[in-house]
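Researcher: I'd like a structural prediction for the single chain below. Treat it as a standalone chain; there are no partners to consider.
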Amino acid sequence: MVQTEICMSEKELKRHGVLERLKAGRMSQSDAAQELCLTTRQVRRLLRRLEAEGPSGLRSARRGKKPNNWIDASRRAEAAGLIRGHYGDFGPTLASEMLRERHGLVFSVETIRTLMREAGLWRAKRRTVRFHPPRPRRSRRGELVQIDGSPHDWFEGRAPRCTLLVFVDDATSRIQAARFVAAETTVDYMSLVAEYIGQYGLPQAFYSDRHSIFRVNVAESAKSSLTQFGRALAELGIEGICANSPQAKGRVERANGILQDRLVKLMRLAGIASWEAGNAFLPEFLADYNERFARPPAEPEDAHAPTCSPERLRAILCLKETRKLSRQLTCQYHQQWLHVLPPKDWERRLVGAEVEIRAHLDGSLDIVHHDRKLAYELLTARPQAPVADAKIVQARPAPSKPPANHPWLRPFSPVAAARVMAERNSARP
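Model: Treating it as a single chain, here is the predicted structure.
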């Protein structure tokens, strides 16, 4: 009798023992299924295979065969070469996307991670995990928009360092607006707010950090004063909220991290080397970003309010300062002298009056008094006060010096003084 040796795994041996007991009638199908973590239907199928083929029928049919996700060595080498040549500093997720979209090579993220680890291009980062209580998302789009500026070497030396302003909707994690600027300034934020309002409407609130653009950081005046940006939001009916920590506005902070990874590398591949080209590239990139990472809101209703007229929006989103007109109807604004050209019969009314100077986003200036624009001209020098009544101002004469024998210069003598008084009294009638 020829004996055949059958190699079985521990799992298959356990199945064989349970099925033998079931076959012998020492346990029920339900007990066997519970012990093997199978259904009764699977138990019956295994029992039929055991009766038909013996113990060899319980062995896996794929033993000794390549797995379905087996990758040919040539494809692995091709992918590894492309990663080393073009995507060496990419993350596994972004590298797998580039291989699929640009080269037609479909690999899972974990496979790319393994290839990069074998090539010494990837090493897992150790992160310190800190617990921050999660804040629930707003339910509707437009209820809360998180805003932030991210200074970074976005063009990797091909252009000067700059800052990317980012507006992220809290309900959807969708990037609503973004723009490259030189630095975080009130004018740049107002300009992006105008673009946002023109496209989506008025949101209910903006969520920012505690930068001096958004908050007066002087303790004595923090409760009573508003910044130019805060004043504009108040006039538009938008609530301005300042976060106490970066984690509180985690949606926009997380978006900044993704942008510093993906946007930088994609602009490198596209050969972008200027702010203007970067801003032109942003709409295409943001469309792809929102398709990948945005999520639908909990409620479909839009919380944006209808926008105001362009004229009112222009009058609000600007820098406003108050000046007092001189007797010559002039005032100074940022080292510029402005001369108001009053309407007819307004000269006396405007002398000493307070006017509002509005510096618009396009660089133009308006002088407003009681909601009325005043015409003005720029002076090249500081105005001089006119001579009163057209009189010629003469030089002040030098003071006269009395002679040495003047009575006022004589030393005081009581006897002489008494004699003089006696002479005066005798001369009286």
